[in-house]
Amino acid sequence: MKLRVHGIDDGQPIPETFAFGVYNEQDHMSFGPNRNPELTWEDAPEGTRSFVVLMFDPDVPSVADDVNQEGRVVPRDLPRVDFFHWVLVDIPASVNRIPEGEDSDGVRPKGKAPGPGPIGVRGVNNYTQFLAGNPDMAGTYAGYDGPCPPWNDERLHHYHFEVHALDVDSLGLSGEFDGHDVREAMKGHVLASARVTGTYTLNPDLR
């Protein structure tokens, strides 16, 4: 199976069009256009009954004490965890394209609701947890919300866009399910997968 993420070449920087946060010299970061990129895929195997789309960053600090703190850095060798930016399941087998901006167009304070969306069923991304302590932003963030890595992180962040062809019509997930729930539910049902990886940073020393 082949996946194309329009506007993002494998291994290359992600354009700010698709970012939740963009570099700002005065304040380190400001909100970006936060549009989901267009995805197209082909050559799904026979027997495919639905698709899953995931996008995640495996370079997120496991400890947030130094994140975005003046006079500190997030060290390159700090252990990292997965941060899901896009969780979309139960995409019909007849679909092989998600248009740009279809699942996200702009930063929406307090997030978007999970459940049936324009295409498929939205799960919850990790901005739900990351912004929980911010009274202006706290809420449930579902569907796509793009890159916004710590501006003081010594590590370049990588963003894996994945599409998975499944042998079931639905994973049977509902409510505020997340990327880990999807990975567990997919076990034994994946017929084929494809991935494109982009990079992004807000650290001026890495840009």
From TrEMBL:
**Do you know which CDD domains this protein is assigned to?**
PEBP_bact_arch
Q: Where in this protein does the record put region Disordered?
A: 98-119
List the InterPro entries. Answer: PEBP, PEBP-like_sf, YbhB_YbcL/LppC-like
Coiled coil, from the record: none
- SUPFAM superfamilies linked: PEBP-like
Q: Name one Pfam family in it.
A: PBP
Leader sequence residues:
none
Q: Which domain of life is it from?
A: Bacteria
Gene3D superfamilies tied to this protein: PEBP-like
What's the name of the protein?
Phospholipid-binding protein
What is the scientific name of the source organism? Marinobacter lutaoensis
**Species classification:** Bacteria, Pseudomonadati, Pseudomonadota, Gammaproteobacteria, Pseudomonadales
